[in-house]
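@channel sequence for tomorrow's demo:
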Amino acid sequence: MALGGVAAALLAFRLDVPALFDNEGRYAEVAREMLLRGDFITPTLDFTLFLNKPPLTFWLAALVHHLTGPSEWARLVSVAWAAVTLVATCRLGALLYGEVAGLVGGAFLAVTMGFILEARTLRPDMAVAALVVLTLLCWRHALRYPAGARTRLGWLVALYASVGVGMLAKGLVPVVLAGIPIGIVTLRERGWRGVLELRPGMGLLVLGAIVLPWHVAIALRHPGFVSDYLWNQHVKTFFDKKLQNDTSGDPLWFFWSVFAGRMMPWIVLLPLTLDEARRGFARIAEPEARATAYLWLWLGGLMLFFSLAPSRLEHYSVPALPAGALLAARAWQRGARGQVGPLAWRSLVAVGLAVTVAGFVLIARGSTMLTQTYWIAQAPGLLTFSPIAGAVVAAMGAAMAIAARRRDAAFLVAAMGLAMIPFSAIIVRAEAEAEPLFSWRLPARAVMSAAGPDTEIVFESPREYQLVAGLVFYTGRRITLLDPPGFVPPDYLKPEMDGMFLSHAELRRRWEAGDRIILVSNPLLRREDPAEIAPGPFRELGRFGDRWVLAPAAASPRR
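structure tokens (generated this afternoon):
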């Protein structure tokens, strides 16, 4: 509990920096509109029906808005889930490897790169991580008691309750992520009898009590929701066949590469547990080896599941981070006990030296390499972080090599963990430097400095029209959406389509007539000449990365 509290306090430091990025805006804005409308059942975005996501993150963000006012502090939702994740990870590690290893695993997770970044990001993935860990923790507790015992029944109720809350956070995803290790281990060790001992009938009742009320209420209010939510948003989205086709998945190599980055620095320790995991899959195995195999089922099952999904996004790997942290803690534990062989230590020396070299490359050439990315030139302050980050990386690598040479597991993990504190601070500061390129706050200020009360604000909407959310949030105004080419509305949205979009022809007519309009460009398209955006003569009100703010040259938008 103390670790969770301290970590939450540190993670919440300057949570208002940077401004909400695009993927956070939809959750903050839907929550703000819930408060404004006094309707916590039906989510809206830009005051138009928005039923693509389950409601839990909206509800919790609305609670924070109510307490603090609409702001970036809605990220406290993710900070709170991060604290839950840490505590649950410590307890699960204690069950698997002992109290000390559990605490070490929680400490490792607290300084894992991806965990720090996700804890400061408003979206459901940290909630999913927390609820998956809670589900697995309850399962392991339940297995300690005989079938039919009252205590076991209580843990199973808690297990299904965790899954139910997870479904309110991200649909069926938590069911799959927790179900992979639970299902494989149960069937292998106990067969179908083991499945029955998990009391699935009772589980359906618990899930129904938690999940059904909101879903039934929405289905009764909005015909078309059920078919779209179950078929389109889950099944077809998994195969990247969603009717709207409004998002594109990350390449497989990128998904795995970013997971390795998110798992920094502990990714280098995970291979040290593979041999023990192999032994843990045997019919007769030591409890600790079985635990390691179980953690690899969790991590590997999640990564394989999303690898099969063309719609995968890099942050979908977040619920695997607790498993990785516990595996790293097991590697430390085995190293401290002298159970790591000479080859493994020599490999860690080589890794440390490679990391040192990478750090010196960052110092010498990092800024030059960064300039190869076109948008970096629009945030030149980012270049100053490269030599600082390189120095931290080089120091960590050198310490790793020395510790591995001495076969000192405590020194090794201390060097890695402590290095992540300044490195994480650099990354968070770099996010703030990049804010103008990935957030709507500054474009919204440019809009509002020129817009009068009767000025129409038009957004050049992509098919993923939800991208407008941050602009709505920071302007506090309803935004007119320019008709996106090829947009196919979900069934529930079809009755709302009249007046939802402005046609290109009508925008041109109003623009040429000199109406008071401000046009904000689609940030997903890279264009250096604003003449490609405006339908006629224009004035430039501002540029922020690929976000242009334009107005007709013939009229002032403010009256």
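heads up for whoever presents: Residues 2-331 form one domain.
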